[in-house]
Amino acid sequence: MASNMTILKMIKDKRDGLAHSAEEIRWLVQNVGSLPDYQLASWLMAVVCRGMTLDETTTLTEAMAKSGEIMDLSDVPGAKVDKHSTGGVGDKVTLVLAPLAAAAGLTVAKLSGRGLGHTGGTIDKIEAIPGAHCELSIERFKQQLRDIGAAVASQTGELAPADGVLYALRDVTGTVESIPLIAASVLSKKIAAGADVILLDVKTGAGAFMRDDASARELATTMMEVGKRLGKHVTCVVSEMGQPLGSAVGHANEVAEAIATLKGEGPKDLTDLSVSLGALLLVGGGLAKDQAEGEAKMRAVIADGTALEKLRCLIQAQDGDPSVIEHPEKMPQPKLRVPVEATTAGYVQNLDALSVGLAGKEIGAGRLVKGAPIDLAVGVMLHKKVGDKVEKGETLAHLLVNDESKVPHASEALLKAYTIGPEPTQAAPLIKAVYAVETAAAK
Fold first, then answer.
1. How far from the centroid of its chain's Cα atoms is residue 402's Cα?
2. CA distance linking residue 120 with residue 88, whole number of Å
3. Which residue, 324, 177, 345, 336, is CA-closest to 254?
4. Could you tell me if 111 and 159 are in contact, meaning their C-beta atoms sit under 8 angstroms apart?
5. What confidence tens digit (pLDDT) does each residue in 145-181 have?
6. Can you tell me the distance from the alpha carbon of 313 to that of 315, in angstroms, rounded to the nearest whole number?
7. Distance in angstroms (rounded) separating the CA atoms of residues 415 and 381
8. What pTM did the predictor assign?
9. How far apart are alpha carbons 412 and 341 in whole angstroms?
10. Active site positions, annotated
11. Positions in the chain whose pLDDT score sits under 50
12. pLDDT tens across 232-250, in order?
């Protein structure tokens, strides 16, 4: 039985701004299943208000990672890499990056999640492919890595279970917004998943969890330092999420856009970000000497078709229909495609990613609560983004809908996402900062 005196002391100490010992943190993680929710929630709120030192955050991360199984990928050849995004709107990078990196010689051991709220999830997107699923046993996951060099699986309950307990409480007690808690949550799952090289894409802007650059940079540097202390090669990128990434927001339409990108026909921002992140993985995995060489290798496997073929293998390995590559219309399709037209002429000065995401959620593309059903056919297709010239009456975007009754409100929300002014403007840089250790840990 967990000691209520110990947790009470930890609550009071953290309330007063004191640091916990490593033994106290390990004790708390070991006992999260038996401590009262109200005491855990109180401790979490104290951490939100008072923060944690880097030592505390490192200990918490390691303890949470070791609270369950640590996946052993030592018998899988090659540098094992994993990439995680903190979430955004239109962020289908994993669907591009996993086959791209595998085609370039890396072993992509990717654990992904479902979407919640206005942000999309990779698992949901993959399930828009007929037959495809991500519920892979550990043995099947590892065998797929050996066979084709890539697997995208949903996380299991055996990985970092203490994080599952704490996150469920954070989600309903207003204690999500804490850099130490976010860092420990993300990294504990990645460490438990066994990858050698971890790439963390921290989004910043209107459609991101970290709304301002300073917070995003602090989270990125914290995660990199914690990862380094725990012997992992962690690279962190701060990237732009002021406007959606690419043109497609939804599920089936995002998969179609990822396919187009691997054919060399995708939006420039999605292509450039995927290539840049892939190059960082190649450098981290020891397969490129620098970013320039890595990017050249990424673009080469798009140009020669090997990345697209790797996507075909990935879909087939996970029981999906690979013919969607030639026939994306086999994925769920909306009944209606409703244009949203500009009410004035000028230039797109801002496209609020959060508003676009909420418009998508309004028509069924997002969840209000975890586990709720979503409509894989619906979404938004953007035709104008920041910097584009617009004429009055020109189509800014299309709503892809199945329920006509939701069109008026979603159309209004989507129109409000656009700020159109008389002067041209430039979109913010895609990558705002990169934090990386100097040498690869993976061999």
1. 27
2. 7
3. 324
4. yes
5. 999 999 998 877 788 889 888 988 887 888 888 999 9
6. 6
7. 13
8. 0.89
9. 10
10. 84, 163, 170, 185, 189
11. 1, 438-443
12. 889 999 999 999 999 999 9
